[in-house]
Amino acid sequence: MADAPIIAQKGPYPVEVTAGKTYFWCTCGRSDTQPFCDGSHKETGLAPMKYEATEDKRLFFCGCKATATAPLCDGAHNTL
Ligand code: FES
Ligand code: FES
Question: What is the per-residue pLDDT for 1?
């Protein structure tokens, strides 16, 4: 069974994404390169979530790992 995600921070990480680029959002909360995966999920049973940007844009990636609209923040961090 997978370990529970931990809260990296109780708020989103703003990131300027680039159209056509692929990102790997950290689902486990253990990465040192938030909001993206650095491989620290090893042995947690969790895996990163792939996100492909379709336009150049500023996005707010979830830092609390409790969002229902992963990988983006949905405000759920306000209830933690
Ligand atoms: Fe996780 Fe906002 S940072 S829902
Ligand atoms: Fe968190 Fe990879 S380090 S999913």
Answer: 77
